[in-house]
């Protein structure tokens, strides 16, 4: 049992040491980053002061460096680089298309595919037709349906008054009286 406790304590101690080392390295990297950025700021300020004392601006310095290195101004370099970038993009797009077409042709040679025939559009068309027919049949009112034989007398046009004194739950005389009061 003592060996197990000793080994587990050793593992814990190693874990603590590694954690402490990583934390220390992280803090050291942060300090180095801040120190480096501060030194860079000081060097930039010193260089700008030196250029100003000689009467050269930073833009003028960049122009002079570009002129000396390439023989062209910065504007000319920008135009040329943009033109070269567009040309390269066109060429890359053309090569991608050719590669895709070649891969497609190669795949066709290896395993020619049979043209698939899709059957589900026909099923959708049939279902839509059935749904339309059902909607039309259900939307018709009972008066619009064709009469069944023997249900109505042949000479009856419906112009005679109903035999009962109530129609649709109302007394027939009440409706005419209401129309006269308005």
Automatic annotation (TrEMBL):
Question: What does the record list as coiled-coil region(s)?
Answer: none
> Compositional bias of type Basic residues: which residue ranges?
24-34, 82-97
According to the record, the residues making up region (Disordered) are 1-40, 68-114, 136-182
Superkingdom, taxonomy of origin: Bacteria
Question: Where are the compositionally biased (Low complexity) regions?
Answer: 169-182
Could you tell me where the Basic and acidic residues compositional bias lies? 98-114
Q: Where is the composition biased (Polar residues)?
A: 157-168
Q: Which residue ranges run through the membrane?
A: none
Any idea what this protein is called?
A: Uncharacterized protein
């Amino acid at each position: 049992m003592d060996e197990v406790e000793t080994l587990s304590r050793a593992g814990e101690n190693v874990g603590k040491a590694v954690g402490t080392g990583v934390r220390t390295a992280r803090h050291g990297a942060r300090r180095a980053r801040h120190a480096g950025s501060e030194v860079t700021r000081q060097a930039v300020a010193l260089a700008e002061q030196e250029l100003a004392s000689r009467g050269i601006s930073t833009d003028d310095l960049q122009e002079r460096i570009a002129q000396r290195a390439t023989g062209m101004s910065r504007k000319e370099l920008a135009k040329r680089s943009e033109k070269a970038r567009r040309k390269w993009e066109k060429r890359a797009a053309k090569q991608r298309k050719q590669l895709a077409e070649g891969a497609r042709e190669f795949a066709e040679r290896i395993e020619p595919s049979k043209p698939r025939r899709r059957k589900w559009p026909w099923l959708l068309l049939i279902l839509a037709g059935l749904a339309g027919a059902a909607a039309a049949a259900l939307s018709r009112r009972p008066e619009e349906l064709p009469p069944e034989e023997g249900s109505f007398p042949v000479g009856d046009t419906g112009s005679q008054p109903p035999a009962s004194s109530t129609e649709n739950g109302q007394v027939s005389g009440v409706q005419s009286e209401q129309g006269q009061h308005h």
